[in-house]
Task: inverse folding
């Protein structure tokens, strides 16, 4: 057997028990079938009719996956300089785009403790969320929700916690979350929807524990000085690239740059 094939076969054998254990963990997660019109009004990729937007997400997916697979990574943060640039929508649509690819599953974890909104994209009102995990009251699989999209799940965060968020993102329990995800969901691409870098010190404290981050920029709104400051603060963090979102030019609705 050629050396490459041999090591691939060895890798597959080594991964097999992990895959089986992982499939068992997510087999019974809660499904909430979110109606198509809800997904459409919130711009979820499975309902978008504009092929150019769908293609932009596919291109982003290809580039992100290439970098992650080359490095053996599976955890990715999505952040920005300031608020409201499209981090949550990018996290969700990138994850769904990944889940549409053969043999891949993706999860979005709502780690924006101040303004959690992953659940609002699906217009669901979870009774439990990340805060219950942080309080030691719930396990990760018990919190996961499948909104009716195969190979995709979300770990919601249901409330807002002004003030305490920085402490919580840097808390040992939060780091345990990342460790647990890396240990038990190694076959998935896990996207962490983060708060903006300049709004608190959450991201700078937490992001080094993730494999890499993407920085979302809003076309015409994110200013160069704030972006420069953001990159300075993240000098120790592995930045995979930047995503230009809400571009006025429909063709460029979303672009991706390597940093
Ligand atoms: N490419 C886009 N085209 C049109 N609208 C968009 C696009 N991206 C995001 N939006 C809209 O902009 C708003 C903000 O998006 P989103 O919640 O994803 O931003 P955010 O950066 O996560 O915000 P926050 O800082 O509050 O977490 C939402 O109403 C979303 O639907
Ligand atoms: Mg958000």
Result:
């Amino acid at each position: 057997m050629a050396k490459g094939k041999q090591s691939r076969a060895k890798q597959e054998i080594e991964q097999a028990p992990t895959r089986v254990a992982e499939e068992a963990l997510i087999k019974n997660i809660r499904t909430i079938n979110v109606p198509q019109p809800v997904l459409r009004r919130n711009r979820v990729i499975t309902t978008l009719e504009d092929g150019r937007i769908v293609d932009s997400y596919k291109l982003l997916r290809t580039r992100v996956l290439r970098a992650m697979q080359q490095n053996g990574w599976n955890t990715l943060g999505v952040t920005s300089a300031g608020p409201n640039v499209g981090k949550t929508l990018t996290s969700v649509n990138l994850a769904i785009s990944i889940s549409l690819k053969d043999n891949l599953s993706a999860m979005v974890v709502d780690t924006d403790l101040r303004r959690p909104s992953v659940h609002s994209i699906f217009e669901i009102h979870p009774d439990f969320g990340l805060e219950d995990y942080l309080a030691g009251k719930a396990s990760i699989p018990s919190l996961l929700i499948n909104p009716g999209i195969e190979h995709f799940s979300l770990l919601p965060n249901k409330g807002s916690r002004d003030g305490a968020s920085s402490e919580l993102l840097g808390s040992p329990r939060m780091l345990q979350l990342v460790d647990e995800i890396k240990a038990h969901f190694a076959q998935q691409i896990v996207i962490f929807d983060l708060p903006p870098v300049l709004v608190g010190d959450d991201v700078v404290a937490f992001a080094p524990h993730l494999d890499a981050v993407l920085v979302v920029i809003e076309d015409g709104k994110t200013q160069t000085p704030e972006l420069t400051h953001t990159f300075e603060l993240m000098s120790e963090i592995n930045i995979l690239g930047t995503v230009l979102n809400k571009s006025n030019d429909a063709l460029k609705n979303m672009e991706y740059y390597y940093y």
Notes: Strands lie at 30-31, 75-80, 105-110, 145-146, 152-155, 188-193, 212-218, 239-245, 255-257. Residues 30-257 form a domain with the Rossmann fold fold (CATH 3.40.50.300).
